[in-house]
Amino acid sequence: MGKRSSVDARLEALIRLKESGTLSPEGSDAIRAGLREKAHLVIAKAAEVAADLHAKDVTPDLVATFERLMTNPSADKGCQALTAIAAALQKLGASEADLYLRGIRHVQMEGTWGGSSDAAGKLRCECAAGLVRMGYSDVVWELARLLADPDRECRA
Predict the structure, then answer these.
(1) What is the pLDDT of residue 115?
(2) pLDDT band at residue 1, thresholds of 50, 70 and 90?
(3) Which residues contact 15 (CB under 8 A, 6 or more apart)?
């Protein structure tokens, strides 16, 4: 139970930081520490806080965490952290074409009752929006691929 309460404490600290509404150098450090975590829920919350507090200075940390998670996507149950990072980068105005391209093509099959399902649909949508927002030159081709995506949300 100690491990779970430790995760809860880290989540609570990030929530308090978000509720403060201001970003200090210590706050940026707390976001960076959250992004270095192993627990995908803490990473997702750190990315959300970075976006909400407009912490552009942690953009390289968000990118590095995205890359780390892509090497072992099973560590990010439900694709929650990857999706939160892509959404944060988009909200921060980051033009990370390579990251968005990796995300728009990512499929993460996870076991469900009676089979498996793709948990990365929202990630593909966030990355598509990021490519559109930054005016990526071949975005039409990427969006066309999503029209044939098995996930209904991606096709929409």
Answers:
(1) 81
(2) very low
(3) 45
